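tool_call: predict_structure(chain=1)
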Amino acid sequence: MLDLMYEWFWWDRLWLPYNVTWTDLEDRDGRVYAKASDLCFTLPCAFALMVLRFLFERSIATYFAHLLGIKDRVRLKVKANPILEESFLSSSKHPKQSEIETLAKRNDWTPRQVERWFRRRRNLARPSVLKKFREACWRFTFYLVAFVAGMAVIVDKPWFYDLRETWKGFPIQTMLTSQYWYYMIEMGFYWSLLFSVASDVKRKDFKEQIIHHVATIMLISFSWCTNYIRAGTLVMAVHDASDYFLESAKMFNYAGWKTTCNVLFIMFAVAFIITRLIIFPFWIIHCTVIYPLELYPPFFGYYLFNGILVVLQLLHIFWAFLILRMALKFMTGNIVEDERSDHEETDNSEDEETVKNGPVANGHGANATANATANNNKHRKTE
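tool_result:
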């Protein structure tokens, strides 16, 4: 039964053009082709990247955070209360007024005390600015290195300038060493994002991020197994072309460098729109939908590959909506803030946070120990 399912899954007609079999993609005459078994190496790559990230965040990222005046904050702890904790974890982090009054009666507290407990408990559950900076610093470094490396892989290839060359001789196209490492590291990175999703900073588009990571892993895996490697490298390079602008904008925002943050955000928005809403659909997807049909009739693998690209494009449109909404706020004079962010709250009766070691100077020399009630919007930062 398992053998039958294995044979059916790897049936030539599912994944390859009608006149090609898996035998045609076996190594011979100096030609080397991608193999499904190669993808097993992406898991060790993912764990290696997670270790590298751990070391990077606690050394290089922390050094730059301290250089920019970003430090851990000491948050007010909450009094242990099993009833409120159970409600916080299982019911709602933002209870309604009726629920607050019920919980107040059960604990013999005032509604004000219950509200304050939930406010402080929510703040304790939120990641610190230092944690956000470290994560942004790591992603900025990876995306920048990946983009530069990706361009080095494809910039001297004929299919970078003429997309029809992507399909010349397909699928009998030998694999290059540079393509191998580009694929292994990129896929390892997306595996590492999935493995660390529980500990990473959570945002309002959490589900969309998961869908994006899964779709990306599926796309990379499929393009590798069916030798869509040339198209795959183009897709990865386009996706790496704008993200480092966003991560650098976050870094400077956490440091309080608002002007630098806004400039970088606008650069990100322009790069995102050009690469994800223009180049990706009108060049890359056009290349994968139209040009292959000049060589062979459509098959299941053709539909699957382009279907995943369409899913990614829908996610691009969703994120573009958030980006344009933020850009509109910026152009109308409002501070740019991440529409996906979960903002920190302050206590109207007292400071919600104090800073270790006294005042901390950020990029503009602002006093980090200013009364938190003076302006709650200062906590609304790009994530």
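agent: The beta strands are 73-75, 353-355. Proceeding to next step.
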